[in-house]
Amino acid sequence: MEDKNVFTVDSYGDECIEKTTISYKWIIENLEENSEDFRLKRKDSKVLKITYEDISKGKGTASNIMKLVVFFDDVNSDPYEVILKIPIFKNSELLNELGVKDIEKYDDDMVSNTLVRCHSQEHLFYREISKEIKNIKVPKYFGGSDAILSKKSGVIIMDYVNPNKGGIIDLNYPFNIYQAKSVIEEILKLQVFSFTNGKHWRNKLQNKRTIGLATILQNIVKIHWEVCKEFIPKTILIEIEEDVVNMVSNFSEISLYNVYHLPESHGENSVICHGDMWVNNILFHKDTEGRFTNDVIAIVDWQIIYEGSIGADLARNLAINCSSETRREIEINYLPQYFNRLKEEVLKKNEPFNITYETFRRHYDFCYIESIFYLIVTIGYKLSQLDMSKENDSIWETRKFLLSSRIYFGIKDAVERVKILKPEWLIKKD
Questions:
Q1: Contact assessment for residue 236 and residue 402, using Cβ atoms and an 8 Å cutoff
Q2: By the number of CB atoms within 10 A of the CB, which of 37, 165, 299, 353 ranks highest?
Q3: Exposed, middle or buried by CB within 10 Å (0-12, 13-18, 19+), for 237?
């Protein structure tokens, strides 16, 4: 592709996405090389203009998600839409988005360097790892670039999902059992890959949380617990508040234990973990009437990908995305089936599988305990974004109770597991 054939005005290609080093020319070159749909739409026409907008505001993301539209000079050519995922390195923006106050007390370099590594890991996943995992549902990748702090913007170019055809299910509507199982099918593909053809990738995915990052996360949990407390009915809040406060005081230890000290969370019995399997990172198909189906389009946001526990992604999906009833039903009736399927698929490929169901379930329970903190963050973040003047009082009363019940039963189940596995986590740390 010669440059002179691309833009109606040659110099237009030198323009960049605002506040980045990502040029229009670079974007178009990647699309021309990697997107058949782009080539079919462009044909012999030239790029007339490019527009973009950030569609990630209010979604708690560590990146700017840009919807970019390419217009052609041929009026018969439809515009081409694509997503640019650009990591945020302005820490005040990121921490503000997550509700964090007193931003100046956090180590700016630590946060920035963590985000650079996260982007690099995610780019590695889309560029190489995802192509090796049979039938896993992730967005199409059209190119990308690693970031160099203060010098070069990182970016991943990926498929745009038309909102008429699919999207994210609102947190107000927990996954039904079939949707939850549809997500678990994608986790199964990732875990089978981890034990078989992809086991060589595990030791390359070592960008794991640190004490500094765990401390930031702990403060985010505290902030959103205060939000949740305002909405939880006092009659049930009194039953769980002390346990929540005590467990939150141990959050850093809980979080780091699951990553570094839980046996089988590294080495031959570890798996590749997505690491953030919550509702905003899972896209479902819609039918012709615009209703969500039970079928996953794609799992997105792989920036936390790491080698970890077999229970991590399962617990996050069930703890955050499901009602307590659905979660419990899957835990009791479906997790044993999942374990047997995983074992069967691994052995079928003549690879060892040395985990018992008891070990598998213990890992799940440890990871569930940690995941319940992220349920608090997720609901707290959702509530903090609400404009109460637009909420119908009758609907809100019911919705508030349902969200509260998810926290209540989630905490009660977590506490019972802590009592068995690590009762010291119920003792408040100063």
A1: no
A2: 299
A3: middle
Tokens for 40, please give them.
């079919």
Give me the residues paired with residue 64 across strands.
Answer: 86
Over residues 160-178, the pLDDT tens digits come to 999 999 999 999 999 999 9
Alpha-carbon distances of 12 from 6, 9, 68, 252, rounded to whole Å: 10, 6, 15, 49
How far is it, in rounded angstroms, from Cα 223 to Cα 380? 8
**pLDDT tens for each residue of 214-259:** 999 999 999 999 999 999 999 999 999 999 999 999 999 999 999 9
> DSSP state, 348?
H
- Angle, alpha carbons 326-331-336 (nearest 5°): 135
Residue of 312, 330, 318, 321 whose CA lies nearest to 274: 312
Cβ contact 153:22 at 8 Å: yes
Residue 402, SS3? helix
The answer to whether 223 touches 383, Cβ cutoff 8 Å, is no
Burial class (CB in 10 A: 0-12, 13-18, 19+), 48: middle
**Spatial distance between the Cα atoms of 375 and 210, rounded to a whole number of angstroms:** 21
Nearest to 355 by CA among 340, 369, 333: 340
- C-alpha distances in Å from residue 138, one per residue of 84, 289, 300, 373, 397: 15, 24, 6, 26, 37
Per the DSSP assignment, residues forming a β-bridge with 272 are 307
Query: Domains of the chain (ranges plus CATH)?
Result: 1-160 (3.30.200.20), 164-426 (3.90.1200)
Helix (H) or strand (E) holding 332: none
Q: Rounded to an integer, what distance in angstroms lies between the CA atom of residue 38 and that of residue 154?
A: 22
Within 35-176, residue ranges assigned H as helices are 36-42, 91-97, 108-127
Q: Which helix (H) or strand (E) holds 312?
A: helix 312-321
- Computed from CA positions of residues 136, 137, 141, 147, in that sequence, does the dihedral angle turn out positive or negative? negative
Q: How confident is the model at residue 25 (pLDDT cuts 50, 70, 90)?
A: very high
Most distant pair of Cα atoms in the chain: their distance: 70
Q: Report d(CA 3, CA 274) in Å as an integer.
A: 38
CB neighbour class for 430 (10 Å; exposed up to 12, middle 13-18, buried from 19): exposed
